[in-house]
Amino acid sequence: MPATLAFCSLPDKAASFPARIAPDWAVMQIHGSCASRTGEGVLLIGPSGAGKSDLLLRLLARGFDLVADDRVDIADGIARPVPALAGLLEIRGLGIFRLPYVAAARLALVVELAASAIRLPVPTRHRDLGLPLSSIDPQSASAPERVALALDCALGRVSQVAGAFAA
User: Fold this and answer.
1) Which of 37, 52, 80, 126 is catalytic?
2) Pairing relationship of beta strands 40-45 and 105-113 according to DSSP bridges
3) Could you give the C-alpha distances from 162 to 45, 133, 138, in angstroms and in order?
4) Most-buried pick from 5, 37, 74, 102 (CB within 10 A)?
5) pLDDT tens digit string along 123-165?
6) Residue 149 burial by Cβ neighbours in a 10 Å radius (0-12, 13-18, 19+)
7) If we measure between CA atoms, which residue out of 127, 97, 122 comes closest to residue 110?
8) What residues of the chain score a pLDDT lower than 50?
9) Would you state the pLDDT for residue 26?
10) In whole angstroms, what is the distance from residue 85 CA to residue 70 CA?
């Protein structure tokens, strides 16, 4: 299921732009979570309850930084937390926590959470963001490592013979 997108901008000018074309000064707000490693962001998308916050928590335990949870503002390829939610992470069954976070990260990858992933997917890109898109089962024990490896592939640090990042 594609993520919900909303463009936040000046109301009098926004009406003149189609919903899928953001003007230079627009901010796209997406329902998702975002983590970064060395300033490179990974946007986690999927329906409510898919496990975005849980996977984000596991990424934090593996050295990633929190950028945003639940909603992410994106402008010019930079992800930022929505100000009212900055530093907040909801963990089901425990509550909402205030954690250290980074104010911005350049997006390099979009990960769509899916119950089962295709064995050898073809390279695809997120239709609105133009970034590499990978599908990962968030319940898999290796999901955080898969996200880290996908990020390395998206950044060209690791090459792939066949699959989502193969040339």
Assistant:
1) 52
2) parallel
3) 24, 15, 22
4) 74
5) 999 999 999 999 999 999 999 999 999 999 999 999 999 988 9
6) middle
7) 127
8) 1-22
9) 78
10) 8
Could you tell me the two tokens for 102?
């980074």
For residue 74 the two structure tokens come to 């994106």
Residue 46: which residues within 8 A CB-CB, separation 6 or more? 1, 3, 32, 52, 112, 113, 114, 138
Find the Cα–Cα–Cα–Cα dihedral 82, 84, 86, 91, rounded to 10°: -100
Amino acid symbol at 53: S
Specify whether 13 is catalytic: no
**To 5 degrees, how large is the angle CA 106–CA 110–CA 113?**
145
- Active-site residue 125, yes or no? no
**24, 92, 98, 119: which one is catalytic?**
119
- Specify whether domain 5-11+25-154 bears CATH 3.40.50.300: yes
Annotated catalytic residue within 54, 65, 69, 70: 70
